[in-house]
């Protein structure tokens, strides 16, 4: 170890996207290693709108591993954090920063303590896969700090042990988590099917739905499903493998109709096996159902599907529109059916890529109030519009994978003290 | 044919119960004959609270078949009515009423026209299986009028062609609809597993839940499920047969714990395959989910299950309590979570067997307002109590099968004119 009087702090800041599964992961065959019972496929979301930024730092002056999430210190004692830290340290390499006069030999990493700060640019508790982005970012940034030789796919197998779906956040675009066959989990990792430029017409709108009921965590929910559902094994063994092959083809060929059919039916089947769990698990609520009905009615009225939907372990809808024009038409429909509460301004009700709102010709609340029923709604009786059923919408698109932010202004830790800025 | 100057009217009035499936029927293998893809088991509900009364009459003066439902004339042209009428007429026998001096030879039934009047003692549109009771009552009363030799099981195979689940309303107590193997449907009929006295402790409470969305009809819903669900075949072939055997045993042994587990999981699985249909079908809503959570929480807090729940093709909950004491405790919980709207009086909010309300110690709205959270609710934060989510509750029990009402005061048709009274 080098440096002047052990006062140095070495750090790396990285940004990692979140992802949404279009063929779902639900059920583990190994709880400790987090090995799934089927492959899954996801779309990576644009990190400009949904991402985690993490700064990892090391210094001989740190007396223990510490972590801060969104500015608040949290415990690193959980088995999942510990798994990731252990796996990364075991692969650490020599690191030299000649400018700062620092040299760390790979054996030293076992003794050096870490400070980690992580920040989500979206609400953590909103059910938007914050743990996936978070664990992926932790693993990616530590791998850079410790100079790991592993590629992102190999890193994904480490992130997987922190949070299953985190492994899919190691790549941008379209990603497959291969369940693998090995008992030690070494082949249960993510591969990129196509990057975000391959199918760059797609636009994603997320409805963050107000929830009243406390949700079942994914971890305990999928355990209960595997233990009690009479349908989950059939899904994992017979249904999903075919859908994975079909979905890979749909992505390869930018076949939106097939993509939509598979994404929607697989989301619905995931929620079906949750309902087949005992006691049953409900993640979707009446608002989720109404969003599905709105999209289904429109898709069926058109010659080809316009929008795919998918729901994770919560009531939020993730809608994927075939292009910008469709996204603008979707946003009109969503605002017609789910207007904001009177005290909410449009600017905080539609966040992310606000240009979609412009495309939809909506500048202010008057434009929202002037929206009329879309043509596919036959009975022009105004449907019950409960304001406040949706908290807000996020407009985004498929996006890129993890990146190192070399500009120190992005760092979440003070480069001199290694404490949160 | 006899009688003075063709002026006679001969009639029969019968009453038939509705039924609730505890192992569900969902999916046909033959749409015309109404042959199911799996066996099902139901509990017959006490006709004092839920039944259809039907008067069928014949007279040489009738110039066409006519039918009135709840006082309003309806068409008999539907294929399902016609199937039942054709099958019954084909089995008609000689009928003689010496007192009235009437003699009808079996060949005459093909030429004689019928007047039919039917009345439900519960709201027809509330999703309470009115068509099951109605078709069963039509077939049963016509069979009596035309002196058929067939027993109730053979009659059930005719009622089945009017409405699948109607076949299970030909018996009281606990009834199994055997799917059968024959292509012509002759062995797809109902058999009684046990009569209503076999397990007479059970108490049933039905929550009629206010629905906002228009529901998918069972007929089109189950067709869509069979055509699009990737799970329905596995359910019908692998899951249901085992549950049928287990449920027969549970009923035989009055094993409430097994009965509850099977009834709840099978209801949930039926709704799971609806969700796995494309586009998905939602019959339960947020209120249904809250009722399930309330029951599940209580069942898990007790050493053995207290209440089973099951939902048909709508949001209404049918809850089966192990005995009267449990039913009173259930009613307290239901009224605590789902109080009536301020303008509703208790007497119209709890209908049917009101003695359960007395057992629960509830005399008026003050008693409802004084209810406290049940012990199994840990966080004593009052949950959101949306008044009006439940329209009303019906307290009832397992009941008997069809009966002829020989007292002419029950007749719905005028004995002289054959027209509605």
Describe it.
2 copies of one chain form a homodimer. Chain A has 421 residues and is of the alpha+beta class. Chain A folds into 2 domains: 4-195 and 405-410, Ribosomal Protein S5, domain 2, CATH 3.30.230; 203-396, 2-Layer Sandwich (Alpha-Beta Plaits). Chain A has 11 helices and 19 strands. In chain A, strands 8-7-11-6-1-19 form a 6-stranded mixed β-sheet, covered by helices on one side. A 5-stranded mixed β-sheet of chain A has the order 15-16-14-18-17. A 4-stranded antiparallel β-sheet of chain A has the order 2-5-12-13. In chain A, helix 2 packs across helix 3. The first copy, chain A, starts with 9 loop residues before the first strand and ends in a 17-residue tail after the last strand. Chain A binds chain B through residues 212-213, 228, 230-231, 234-235, 238-239, 261, 264-265, 268-269, 271-273, 275-280, 282, 285-286, 289-290, 292-293, 296, 300, 384, and chain B through 212-213, 228, 230-231, 234-235, 238-239, 261, 264-265, 268-269, 271-273, 275-280, 282, 285-286, 289-290, 292-293, 296, 300, 384. Chains A, B: It is an enzyme of class 4 (lyase).
């Amino acid at each position: 170890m080098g440096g002047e009087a052990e006062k140095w702090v070495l750090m790396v800041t990285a940004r990692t996207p979140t992802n949404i599964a279009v063929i779902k992961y639900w059920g583990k065959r190994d709880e400790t290693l987090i090995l799934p019972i089927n492959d899954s496929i996801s779309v990576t979301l644009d990190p400009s709108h949904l991402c985690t930024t993490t700064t990892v730092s090391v210094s001989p002056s740190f007396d223990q591993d510490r972590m801060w999430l969104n500015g608040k210190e949290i415990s690193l004692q959980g088995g999942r954090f510990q798994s990731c830290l252990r796996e990364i340290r075991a692969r650490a390499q020599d690191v030299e920063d000649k400018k700062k006069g620092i040299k760390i030999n790979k054996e030293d990493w076992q003794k050096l303590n870490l400070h980690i700060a992580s920040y989500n640019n979206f609400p953590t508790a909103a059910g938007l896969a914050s743990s996936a982005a978070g664990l992926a970012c932790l693993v990616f940034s530590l791998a850079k700090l410790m100079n790991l030789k592993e590629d992102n796919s190999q890193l994904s197998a480490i992130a997987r042990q922190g949070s299953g779906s985190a492994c899919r956040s190691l790549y941008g675009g379209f990603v497959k988590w291969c369940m693998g066959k090995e008992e030690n989990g070494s082949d249960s990792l993510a591969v990129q099917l196509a990057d975000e430029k391959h199918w760059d017409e797609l636009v994603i709108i997320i409805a963050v739905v107000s929830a009243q009921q406390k949700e079942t965590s994914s971890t305990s929910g999928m355990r209960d499903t595997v233990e009690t559902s009479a349908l989950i094994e059939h899904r994992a063994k017979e249904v999903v493998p075919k859908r994975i092959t079909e979905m890979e083809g749909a992505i390869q060929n930018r076949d939106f109709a097939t993509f939509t059919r598979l994404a929607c039916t697989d989301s619905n089947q995931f929620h079906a096996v949750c309902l087949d769990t005992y006691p049953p698990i409900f993640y979707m609520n009446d608002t989720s159902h109404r969003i599905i009905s709105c999209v289904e009615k429109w898709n069926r009225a058109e010659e080809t599907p316009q929008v795919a939907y998918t729901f994770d372990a919560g009531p939020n809808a993730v809608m994927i529109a075939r292009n910008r024009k469709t996204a603008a038409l979707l946003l009109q429909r969503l605002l017609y059916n789910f207007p904001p509460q009177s005290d909410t301004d449009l600017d905080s009700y539609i966040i992310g890529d606000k240009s979609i709102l412009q495309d939809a010709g909506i500048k202010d609340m008057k434009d929202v109030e002037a929206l009329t029923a879309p043509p596919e709604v036959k009975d022009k009786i105004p449907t019950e519009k409960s304001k406040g059923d949706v908290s807000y919408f996020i407009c985004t698109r498929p996006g890129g994978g993890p990146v190192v932010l070399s500009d120190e202004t992005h760092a979440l830790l003070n480069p001199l003290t290694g404490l949160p800025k």
